[in-house]
């Protein structure tokens, strides 16, 4: 179970700015959130140590790198014992085409987001990661025809 971290106004301002642009220097960030550079650096380090900031990454356009087919996949397992759920999650963690994996309630056991170059790549993924697994009972995939919103920001 995750523990919520208490954030003050300065922490929230830092997180808000960094969610828009994590490439800022510490001095630029400090100026935007109206604190000194040493205070800003100390705050960012604490947010990283506490796990509030998980990663600082570049968001790559799937279409520009040849992975423009997005699939939203529902997976239902035959056996939902804790170790079988964990086995499936571990297998999905190894699949680079699986960009997100959620264990969900009421309905399928998992919802995945996958990014692949084309339908042939999806079929290869589906065979390797879903149908070849002995515990997968049902796979239902929806393919995106238009992405109207994509955001990585978390409301703070």
UniProtKB/TrEMBL annotation:
Query: InterPro entries annotated for this entry?
Result: ArsR-like_HTH (IPR011991), AsnC-type_HTH_dom (IPR000485), Dimeric_a/b-barrel (IPR011008), Tscrpt_reg_AsnC-like (IPR019888), Tscrpt_reg_AsnC/Lrp_C (IPR019887), WH-like_DNA-bd_sf (IPR036388), WH_DNA-bd_sf (IPR036390)
Q: Which GO terms describe its biological process?
A: regulation of DNA-templated transcription; response to amino acid
Q: Which UniProt keywords apply?
A: DNA-binding, Transcription, Transcription regulation
Which CDD domains did the record assign?
HTH_ARSR
SMART domains attached here?
A: HTH_ASNC
Q: Name one GO cellular component term.
A: cytosol
Name of the protein: Lrp/AsnC family leucine-responsive transcriptional regulator
- Its source organism is Pigmentiphaga kullae
| Molecular function per GO | sequence-specific DNA binding
Q: Which Pfam families match?
A: AsnC_trans_reg, HTH_24
Where the record annotates domain HTH asnC-type, the positions are: 7-70
Gene3D superfamilies linked to this entry: 3.30.70.920, Winged helix-like DNA-binding domain superfamily/Winged helix DNA-binding domain
